[in-house]
Amino acid sequence: MTLRSFLFSFLRRQKYSFLFLVLISLMWAVEQVLFPYAVKMIIDVLASYEGDRSQVYEVLAFPLWLGAGVWIASITAWRTADVIEYFFAPRFQANIREAMTQYVFSHSHRYFSEHLAGSIANKIGDMVRGAYYIVNQAVRFFFPNLIAVLATAAVMCTISYVFGAILLVWAAVHLFLCGYFSRQCDDVANEHSEIKSMLQGRVVDAVSNFITVRLFARSSHELDNVRRYQKEEIRAHRHMLLTIGKVRALLEIPCLVMIIIEVYFLIKGWQEGYVSTGDAVFVLSTTLNLMYILWRVGMEFPAFYREIGVCQQALSLIREPHEITDRKDAPALVITQGQIAFENVFFAYNKGQNLFCDKNIVIPAGQRVGLVGFSGSGKSTFVNLILRMYDLESGRIVIDGQDIAHVTQDSLRSQVSLIPQDPILFHRSLRENIAYAKPDATDEEIIAAAKQAHCHEFIMAAPEGYAAIVGERGVKLSGGQRQRIAIARAILKDAPILIFDEATSSLDSFTESAIGRSMEAMMKGRTTIVIAHRLSTLTSMDRLLVFKDGSIAEDGTHEALLAAGGHYAMLWNMQVGGFLPDSTTEKAPA
Ligand SMILES: Nc1ncnc2c1ncn2[C@@H]1O[C@H](COP(=O)(O)OP(=O)(O)OP(=O)(O)O)[C@@H](O)[C@H]1O
Ligand SMILES: [Mg+2]
Questions:
Q1: Which residue's alpha carbon is at the smallest distance from atom 31 of ligand 1?
Q2: Which residues contact 512 (CB under 8 A, 6 or more apart)?
Q3: Widest Cα–Cα separation across the chain
Q4: The dihedral of CA 162, 166, 167, 169: what is its sign?
Q5: Looking at the domain 327-415+528-584, which fold is it?
């Protein structure tokens, strides 16, 4: 999608307001010629009037009315433009913001892990501001000014072709130079904007990781890091300003040449009698006016190109196709039982490095399955694939006979609850955070869910209770409190398939066993997958899958796997306090 087609798609939605603005600009352009023309007529009348001076109004009536009419029409038009803009501008910007945000939301998990959130948000902001600037400048500035030049040149031709020609040649040279150098300015502006957005991303990254920065006492390192990018940014900024300055200096030359030639021909024409006093005033005043106007037009070019550059950059957000999309006319997923099957699944985060090779596994409906294995063995990946966070290399994942790649993503994700290890909360109230999956939940429902997840107690301990704001990403809560909020959220969501990815890892044993009872209740009649490093929490599962380097090494109940004496038995025996070591190198001595 080009920037032009992007802008036009939004202008089409407000075509009447837009056309009105164009029309008003056109009226203004005509006024730029008619008003000086009325003045010229008045001067000509006065200069050659030889009758009774008390009767002069009779001959002046037409030019006076013309001037007054044009003037009034012009102010009325501009004020009407203000009114139209009142309706046009806010809606235009809102439409763009909404469309871009909506598009970005459908980007894949991978996209969000590869792009900084701050820079995505900045790009949306840039586009909202830049798109309006471009349209406004084009319609209310460039377009009417160019029309004014053409109209003035046409009227000048009625005096002598020479003046029209001089004006057009100069305007063409001026605009050509502006356009030519704007491309240069565009390049340097693009470079600057790219570096600026990288710098901005760095700042956001450092600020959003402020806890880590503080814990490691690395603020000076982060500042140095920012400074390094800052240095680059200063260089690019200066380079841009210098280029613009040079272009401005160069543009002065044709202006000077034009004025000299024009004055020469005006005097010559006056001497030879084909230029009247009024004509001379008209030519000089409109030329000076247009020179001022076109100078401003030229000066706006770099800023205009800069804005185009910024918008092009921002457009990359929506130029990048969605990695994971719904098929055309994809039906909604219908879960009747809740059986999950992996059929010949090959999956790789990076091409050529398969994490899962030909994975086949069936989790029958209603089964409670525990996933265990070393860190990095692929447990989270396994559950993320069930939510279609990534697409497979080949094979399929089937829920109740329906390939999850063939149903809508929303229907899939609204029926699978995943409670992550480190839930991040919205900077909103506790109530809103809990009711996120069910915005129309009643207070009773919310409190009941909070009680089951054992968060009611600590919520009520806060003075604002459920209205308390949790801080950006939930920083005002402890890790265990955030986990409990996430569990309450899942209880309200009431989805037929449940996945806990280390969802109770931050809880103390007492709270964990208390919540365990609520979780047992939640699991009833639901297909459930629980990932836990604390193996003792998984002993009552119907089945355990032991992950090893992406493959499922063992499959069975706790007792059966212990008896088999394999990888699981080794892990179990290693659990001193109930936790797994991080890798096989930490194996306990035999
Ligand atoms: N977004 C990603 N891009 C590239 N590689 C990834 C990505 N996420 C995970 N991996 C890699 O895939 C492998 C499996 O990761 P996964 O998160 O599934 O492990 P895990 O078993 O859940 O570990 P843990 O117990 O620590 O949570 C790891 O080697 C990891 O580095
Ligand atoms: Mg994990």
A1: 376
A2: 504, 537
A3: 126
A4: positive
A5: Rossmann fold (3.40.50)
Please say whether the beta carbons of 96 and 317 come within 8 A.
Answer: no
pLDDT at position 461 over 80: yes
- Taking only the tens place, the pLDDT of each residue in 69-105 is 999 998 898 899 999 999 999 999 999 999 999 999 9
304-348 per-position pLDDT tens digit: 877 898 899 899 888 888 889 999 999 999 999 999 999 999 999
Of ligand 1's listed atoms, the one at least distance from the Cα of 379 is 21
Q: Do domains 3-319 and 327-415+528-584 have the same CATH topology?
A: no
Q: Please name the residue whose Cα sits nearest to atom 6 of ligand 1.
A: 349
Given a contact cutoff of 8 angstroms between Cβ atoms, the answer to whether 149 and 294 are in contact is yes
Average the pLDDT over 381-389 and give the result. 94
Q: What is the pLDDT of residue 583?
A: 52
What does the alpha-carbon distance between residue 300 and residue 70 come to, in Å, rounded to a whole number? 27
Helix (H, G, I), strand (E, B) or coil at 36: helix
What's the rounded mean pLDDT across residues 53-82?
Answer: 89
User: Ligand 1, closest atom to CA 390?
Assistant: 1
Residues with CB under 6 A from ligand 1: 113, 349, 355, 373, 375-381
Identify each DSSP E strand in 421-514 by its residue range: 497-501
Residue 22's pLDDT band (boundaries 50, 70, 90)? very high
Q: How far is the CA of 166 from the centre of ligand 1 (A)?
A: 70
Q: Which of 115, 375, 551 to mutate to test the pocket of ligand 1 (most atoms within 8 A of CB)?
A: 375
The pLDDT value recorded for residue 580 is: 53
* Nearest ligand to residue 551 Cα: 1
Q: Atom 27 of ligand 1 has which residue's CA nearest to it?
A: 375
**Edge-to-edge strand list for the sheet holding 497-501:** 416-419, 497-501, 527-531, 368-373, 543-548, 551-556
What separation in Å is there between the alpha carbon of 423 and the centre of ligand 2? 13
Spans of all domains in the chain: 3-319, 327-415+528-584
C-beta of residue 506 within 8 angstroms of C-beta of residue 388: no
pTM: 0.75
Determine the atom of ligand 1 nearest the C-alpha atom of 113: 1
pLDDT beyond 70 at 582? no
Contact 227, 221 (CB under 8 A): no
Give the count of beta carbons closer than 10 Å to the beta carbon of residue 381. 17
Residue 590 has a pLDDT of 35
CATH 1.20.1560.10 fits 3-319, yes or no: yes
- In this structure, the residue with its CA closest to atom 20 of ligand 1 is 376
Q: At what angle do helices 443-452 and 509-523 cross, to 10 degrees?
A: 120
Q: Which residue has the tokens 């007492």?
A: 510
